[in-house]
Amino acid sequence: MSGTETDAAVDAPTDHVLSQEAVLAAQLDLGLDELRRPLDGLFLSGVSAGLDIGFGPLFMAALYSAAAGVWATPTLDLALGALYAVGFVFVVLGRAALFTEHTTLAVIPVLTGEADVRSLLRLWGTVYAGNVVGGTLFAAAMVATAPAYGIADAAAFVHLARPFLSHSWAVTLTAAVLAGWLMGLLSWLVTAVRDSATQLAVVVLVTSVIGFAHLPHAVAGVVELAAAALVAPTITAAEVAAVLGVAVVGNAVGGSVFVALLKYGYVVRGLDD
Length: 273
Known about the structure:
Layout: H1 3-11, H2 20-36, H3 39-52, H4 55-67, H5 73-93, H6 99-105, H7 107-112, H8 117-145, H9 154-165, H10 169-192, H11 196-213, H12 220-231, H13 237-272
Helix pairs in contact: 2-10, 3-5, 3-8, 4-5, 4-9, 5-11, 6-10, 6-13, 8-12, 9-12, 10-11, 10-13, 12-13
């Protein structure tokens, strides 16, 4: 095989994975589609994502209530991380509007000059507002029903939220950047692979890492922190808002800088070469 043929074989997408250039083009198209959607549609999609993502914390609280003190701590932590992924599977594969995915998708059209920063911020604000509404509604319903039905103890909600409330803002911000970075990679990889089974595996793998490491996610954190605040008067709304504010900034930086900007940069430079 000649050198030209070898290079073409390396650059060509396989049956299941798109090339980097194709992924960038697909993400650009997806980002433009989202930026052009009516705001009311974006908001409702954001509400749906906030509601759906709550199933992860619900299942985590149920398992913790049943297995804490029975299972070994490492085993329980691994299982809780895996259950954290459930809500993300519903959201990502269901194509609902999730803030941390849009930090990557919507930035790329801005980098190409096909959208402006104002439209980007409008998209982020609309989607996140919907995520917060949906997540808060789910948290309220979870607190009202889960203990009453014996699904989860109220103490489990506080346990899930404690890692987000026990660190300095600098540590929380750094962890949130890592979470945003991982979510940006998730968005890129889900676009890169074509079959649903591989997409499912990517979502579970990436979000399980976020859950196991207790990295602050600006949307799942709404459910966890709101539920804890509703059952523990010592957790104030100001504390919840402060943590979520730091998480939003960190997630946005992680997704837009470490994924969108860098991947856009090296793919475009590769095309120029």
